[in-house]
Amino acid sequence: MMTRDQLGREWQRLKEVELQSLDLKEAGEWPPLLRALCVALVFLLAFGGLVWWEVSDKRAKLAEEKRQEARLLSEYRVKASEVALLPNVQNQLMDLEEQMGRMRAMLPTSAEIPSLLDSISDAAVDNRLTIEVIRLRATVSNEHYIEHPLDIQVRGGYHQLASFAADISQLARIVTQHDLTIAPVDGQGDSLRLSLVARTYSYLDDPAGAQVTP
């Protein structure tokens, strides 16, 4: 270990060294203090590079972990929100099922179609209309239900026809009205002819069958 005097002399020699004249090939002849400083500098650079490489790798992993944490937190919040809404969704589903049950109860079975035609005929008679046509078309099968179209053609006054259409819409079973046309009847004064296609529906699982012959 250098004494203070030796260290002072080495430091003086180091100050006298011209850095521009230093040659790496002659590094063995450099002053000991300069060689020690160069070794320390190389060590620090190597150590700093190693630390930087380790830290950058850890920093990348940390950034990825933070992104994953944010993603998982977002998913958790979404699922927590869905769980919080689950009771409301279940209640809405129950309400919907009840509504579907009520609507299904309003659909006639295939066996009830003839009596539905009688109800429509009665509505025409009650409104003092002349019945020209009330008959079933061929049924149409869809994915979950069967459609029963009816051709209706009646004759009478405007208010009577309007009342008849309202009575059809208020039947106990669901009947929809389509392609309504009203035209004057030649030679009948104020008499009008109402033509329309009414449709009612039944489920495919109706045990009474899918086809009703008019």
UniProtKB/TrEMBL annotation:
<keyword id="KW-0812">Transmembrane</keyword>
<dbReference type="InterPro" id="IPR014717">
    <property type="entry name" value="Transl_elong_EF1B/ribsomal_bS6"/>
</dbReference>
<protein>
    <submittedName>
        <fullName>Type 4a pilus biogenesis protein PilO</fullName>
    </submittedName>
</protein>
<keyword id="KW-1133">Transmembrane helix</keyword>
<dbReference type="InterPro" id="IPR007445">
    <property type="entry name" value="PilO"/>
</dbReference>
<keyword id="KW-0472">Membrane</keyword>
<dbReference type="Pfam" id="PF04350">
    <property type="entry name" value="PilO"/>
</dbReference>
<feature type="transmembrane region" description="Helical">
    <location>
        <begin position="33"/>
        <end position="53"/>
    </location>
</feature>
